[in-house]
Amino acid sequence: MKDDHTAEKGKNIFLSKALEDRLNDVLVYNSIIETPLSKINSIMIKDIDDIGLQYLLNYQTQREGDLLNALSYSTTLFPYINEMEPYRESKNGISLEYDDYKSELSELLNKRRSIRDFSGDEVSFKVISNILLNAGNIHKIGDFFFRNIASGGGFYPIDIYFYANNVENLEQNIYKFNPMNKNLEIINSDSAKSINSIFSSQSSIQFEKAAGIIFFVFDYIKPFQKYGDFSLSFGFIEVGMISQTIHLLSTLYGVGVCDIGGFDKPSCESLLKVDGLNKHVIHAMVLGSI
Questions:
Q1: What CA–CA distance (Å, rounded) separates 102 from 99?
Q2: What is the pLDDT of the chain when averaged over all its residues?
Q3: Which backbone phi and psi does 228 adopt, to 5 degrees?
Q4: How does DSSP classify residue 40?
Q5: Which phi-psi region, left, alpha or beta, contains residue 273 (left: φ > 0; alpha: ψ -120 to 50)?
Q6: Neighbouring C-beta atoms of residue 74, cutoff 10 Å
Q7: pTM listed for this prediction
Q8: Could you tell me the domains of the chain?
Q9: For 39-53, 182-196, 205-219, 274-288, which range has the lowest pLDDT when averaged over its residues?
Q10: Which of 31, 64, 158, 252 is most enclosed, with most CB atoms within 10 A?
Q11: Residue 29's CB: how many other CB atoms inside 10 A?
Q12: Pairwise CA distance, residues 24 & 18, whole Å
């Protein structure tokens, strides 16, 4: 048994050293990230050569005035765009054979809607648990661990944080979801007063009536060791897969949910205790009783 433990420890040391060597090889091309554990030396955008990292640091620097109010868009532009779209499409083509009208998945997909109006009633802790675990669960088959969603290179760089606002038997805190241990770790217990300021541009959503908010944090270093600048697109793709899964689960459990694209990124990262350099809050979803 002792020999096995020693061999495993030696293997881990070897893998850690191999990973750091790989990172140093990949990052040699004018990147300012030196090792897996180091901070970025400068946050002055003009000094950063990695275009993917530049985008991550800048993608939410727009001011509120640059954003079209969601209500104005939905009442003015969207109906017009929606009416015009069918006329732009060609009617020539091969017709598809669609007969899956009644499967559970098909019905869930057809029922899915973005919900912004909530009743203010509590959502049960069991429903929140099922949504988080089914969206990002780790399960073991034989000697191997698997997740419910795909990830580029199997790096799984997206961490899920949850702000509990109105959940049965769950205190109003910011939590980090741990899929391996299947639990919620308290990150910040002084969070309620900051939520409204973070989402001040989202006037069409009553956050005080929501059960909670899901935040997606992208660990840029994890996929960068293999994919370099492609890491950015893979991170957003992974968030898309998780958020769609949450939409379907919420529809199944009778909970309303809506994606949130506009928020104060630096303030949000401060609330979640994320550095905004190697790790970034890149998306959020609000959910609640309807």
A1: 8
A2: 78
A3: 60, -130
A4: P
A5: left
A6: 14
A7: 0.76
A8: 106-289 (3.40.109.10)
A9: 39-53
A10: 158
A11: 9
A12: 10
List C-alpha distances in Å: 152 to 1, 95, 222: 36, 33, 10
* pLDDT tens by residue, 139-189: 888 888 888 888 988 899 999 999 999 999 999 999 999 998 999 999 988
135's CB contacts (< 8 A; 6+ apart) are 148, 149, 160, 242, 245, 246, 249
Tokens of 11: 């293997």
Taking the C-alpha atoms of residue 102 and residue 85, their distance in angstroms, rounded to an integer, is 27
| Amino acid identity, position 236 | F
Strands (E), the chain: 138-141, 144-147, 158-164, 174-178, 183-188, 212-219, 255-260, 279-289
Tally of CB atoms within 10 A around 120: 12
Buried b (16+ CB within 10 A) or exposed e, 84-93: eeeeeeeeee
Distance of alpha carbon 268 from alpha carbon 274, whole angstroms: 8
pLDDT, position 170: 93
Within a 10 A sphere around the Cβ of 109, how many other Cβ atoms? 14
Tokens 């309807």 appear where? 290
Taking the C-alpha atoms of residue 243 and residue 249, their distance in angstroms, rounded to an integer, is: 10
3-state helix, strand, coil in the chain (%, to 5): 45, 20, 35
Entry field: residues in the chain:
290
Task: Give the tens place of pLDDT for each residue, 41-98.
Answer: 444 344 555 666 777 776 655 444 445 555 555 666 666 666 656 666 677 888 888 8
